[in-house]
Each structure stands twice: as C-alpha cells, then as structure tokens.
Specification:
heterodimer, A: 110 residues, mainly beta, six-stranded mixed beta sheet, three-stranded antiparallel beta sheet, 9 strands, 0% helix, B: 122 residues, seven-stranded mixed beta sheet, globular
Amino acid sequence: QSALTQPASLSGSPGQSITISCTGTSSDVGAYNLVSWYQHRPGEAPKLMIYEGSKRPLGVSSRFSGSRSGNTASLTVSGLQADDEADYYCCSYAGSSTVLFGGGTKLTVL
Amino acid sequence: EVQVVESGGGLILPGGSLRLSCEASLFNVNRNYMIWVRQAPGKGLERVSVTNLGGVTYYGDSVKGRFTVSRDNSKNTMYLQMDGLRVEDTAVYYCARVYARSYSPLWYMDAWGKGTTVTVSS
C-alpha cells in the first residue's frame, strides 16, 4: 500500500482560500468515507481538523472544510490567516485495520 | 481533556533495542484502539502499528517482526518494544487514540502526544 498523494507545498495570501488534495485509490479514499485531516506544527502534537471526510471537531474553525469525490479527498482553508501556516496530512482507512497517510502539504501564508 | 504522553526515545546504535511508552490520561488504553505513528526527518507520517480492543496488533511492513506492542492496564500505558533497530527507524514516534463509537473504530485520531525522538546511529 502506497501513501496517499498530496502536493508537497501550497501558499496563499491572508484572506484567500486554498485547497489541499489527497489522492488515493478505490481501496482506501474511494472505498470508505473515513478520511481525516491533521494540522501539524514542528514540536507539537498533530491536531485533528476534519474527520469522516467533512466533519469538524468542536473548536476547529469553520474556515476549515473537507470533501471527497471518488478517490480524492480535499481540505479547503478559507480566509487564510497567518496562524494557519503548518503542515497538513490526510489519512484514510484502507481496510484490515490499516490507515494510510498522505505525504503532507506544507502550507505557507505569504 | 483526553491526552497521551510518549517517552523513552533516545540515541541507540544500529541493531540495538529501545522501549517507548505511551501513557494515557482520562481514557483506558485497553478499551480503545491505539496507534503508533512515526515521522522520519523530512518525511511524512507513517503508521507503525494499530492495536485493537482485543490487544491484537497490526504492524506496518517496515517494522513487522522487529517491533512489538504491549499494554500495561495497571499503568494505563502502551509500549512499543523496538528491536533490531536500523538507521531508517530514526524518527519522531507518536502514539494516538483511534476514536471509536460503540467500540467500532472510526479511524481518526483524536488524541495525540507530542512525540518522542528515536535516533539510530553509529
């Protein structure tokens, strides 16, 4: 099983919107609506931002939204803020008690 | 707030062994699915292992046969015993809880630690 495919880096200006894609296969992203997204800053614990494809945990800003179409999941961050600068990882259930992570996307707020 | 704290990392020679600990607060490790995840320098996250409610552990191909997960219910702690360490095992190791509803995992991690660093080098 290969890692899910994410763009290595993205950037945007404050106030803009960006979308991070996460491409898998019909055996993982396409098979289960069990994609989650994590925000990770160096030295910190990863933080859950989206689960079950599009649900937001309590306390996560509504500026973060998730979706899925076929074998590709997406995380959209609207109204970019400086504090959004971090690495973002997608994760999908892949059957047989296995999860796959994406390679991570470094988001830079210009 | 539920949380986990990892410990036990360090510098170890290739071929050596190390045991990492993951202590949980406000939930029981033996009543939850738990996962170990690692991040090698400059790389993304990689699943190391997943342990289910029955204590059965599924390992990633890169660590199968070398790493072993165990739990100590009295200490509410999960362990990752790492034997036959290789340079490529160098990483920050995280443990996390896999959220479950009615004991069925929903395969997202809602409680992560800050990680513990393992460096395998001669």
